[in-house]
Amino acid sequence: TEQSASTLRTASRWMTHFSRHRASKGALLLQRKEVLLSVQDGQPSVEAVNANGPGRRLIGEMMVACCIGAARWCDEKQIPILYRCQPAPTESLSWTPADLRKPSHQASILRRLQPTSISVTRGPHFTLGTEGYTQVTSPLRRYHDLVVHQQIRAHLAGEVMPHNEVSLREIIEGSERRMSEIRRVEIESRRYWTLEYLRER
């Protein structure tokens, strides 16, 4: 409908403005190429994904805006949550918009970035160009997102929040190692099936 189209155009304008604002703060707006790797009956297949299309960019920017807004709001309300932080690189980085579209430049920049970490203290996230960030958009997929949802819901309902800073630190300590193991398995699995796909060709 026309109303839906108008709402979509408004959202697109705001998210374009927001993206430019983040870029002015040093955010890395990488335009990376993506492929969808799937395996069926032991046979890997690869499909190119338009990761930089207008729909994907709009949804991605809205998710970042939501997470930044949630982090700021929780900090203002003094709600204990889990923040995702990333310090600035130890060496100076410089790039042009054209550089961010080149895979070789992207790889060079990514290799020099500091790893992200989970904290109970709001801190900067270098890649996203923000002073505070939490993950809150995927509570069905990520446990940390669910924890943040539980904290926000309890605050809005006027209930005792299920977690304080002590229990949040325990969650971080207990989940970081498991998440690291899961990421390693995912990376190795993807590497194996990618090599199988290439070997067959």
Overview of this structure, please?
The protein is mainly alpha-helical and 201 residues long. The chain is built from 5 helices and 4 strands, in the order H-E-E-H-E-H-E-H-H. A two-stranded antiparallel sheet has the order 1-2. Strand 1 and strand 2 form a beta hairpin. Helix 1 packs across helix 2. The radius of gyration is 19 Å and the shape is globular.
Please describe the topology of this protein.
Elements: H1 2-24, E1 34-40, E2 43-49, H2 54-76, E3 83-85, H3 103-111, E4 117-119, H4 143-157, H5 165-200
Antiparallel strand pairs: 1-2, 3-4
Unreliable spans are none
Strand tally, please?
A: 4
Q: Major sheet, described briefly?
A: 2 strands, antiparallel
Shape: globular
Q: Output the strand order for the largest sheet.
A: 1-2
Provide the β-strand percentage band.
Answer: 5-15%
Order of helices and strands: HEEHEHEHH
Count of helical segments? 5
Average of pLDDT? 90
Cα separation of the termini: 47 Å
Q: What brief labels describe this structure?
A:
201 residues, mainly alpha, two-stranded antiparallel sheet, 5 helices, 4 strands
Task: Give a short overview.
The chain has 201 residues and is mainly alpha-helical.
